[in-house]
Amino acid sequence: MHRITPARRLARGFTLVEVLVALGIVAIALLAGLQATAALTRHAQRQSDMLLGQTCAENELIRLRLARQLPDVGDSSVVCEQAGEVFTVALAVRPTPNFNFRRVDAQVFKGDESVLRLSTIAGRY
Predict the structure, then answer these.
(1) What is the pLDDT of residue 94?
(2) Which one of 17, 108, 109, 110 has the lowest number of neighbouring Cβ atoms within 10 Å?
(3) Residue 47 CB: number of other CB atoms within 10 A?
(4) What angle do CA 73, 62, 54 make, to 5 degrees?
(5) How far apart are CA 123 and CA 98, in angstroms?
(6) Ranges of H-type helices in 11-84
(7) pLDDT tens track for 98-119
(8) Cα–Cα distance between 86 and 115 in angstroms, integer?
(9) Alpha carbon of 113 to those of 46, 48, 75: distances in Å?
(10) Cα–Cα distances in Å, from 65 out to 50, 59, 120?
(11) Which helix or strand (DSSP H or E) is residue 88 part of?
């Protein structure tokens, strides 16, 4: 009969359960990393959309200011393209208690999703 020595017992390797537990831990770590990467990608896209949307909204508000007249009360919509992305700027002009001023809200949409809203006051020139 052969006697198993302690050195021979150590050389037997890992059990199937140990390998499965290690694979489970690695899978969970990879899944967490993948979710973090996806969140960073979504955040970067959202930040880019907000920057481009802000440019569109500011362009429309400056256009109203350069017209040098009090804007008419009402709603309008303008399509704006920035960096190959298409945005829609919805302008809402509302009266204020002082008839020399109007409130102007510019809300930017990318598709159906609201990206940004800017508001200002336009006055008589």
Answers:
(1) 96
(2) 17
(3) 10
(4) 100
(5) 10
(6) 16-66
(7) 999 999 999 999 999 999 999 9
(8) 12
(9) 11, 14, 19
(10) 22, 10, 10
(11) strand 85-95
How many whole angstroms separate alpha carbon 124 and alpha carbon 117? 23
Q: What is the mean pLDDT of residues 70-86?
A: 94
Q: How far is CA 38 from CA 22, 26, 41, 110, 121, in A?
A: 25, 18, 5, 20, 39
Count CA within 13 A, CB hemisphere, residue 29. 6
Q: Residue 45 in 3-state DSSP?
A: helix
The identity of residue 81, as a single letter, is E
Q: Which helix (H) or strand (E) holds 10?
A: helix 6-10
Q: What is the pLDDT of residues 26-67, one digit of tens each?
A: 999 999 999 999 999 999 999 999 999 999 999 999 999 998
Q: Of the candidates 102, 73, 106, which has an alpha carbon nearest to the alpha carbon of residue 87?
A: 106
> Structure tokens of 59?
């362009």
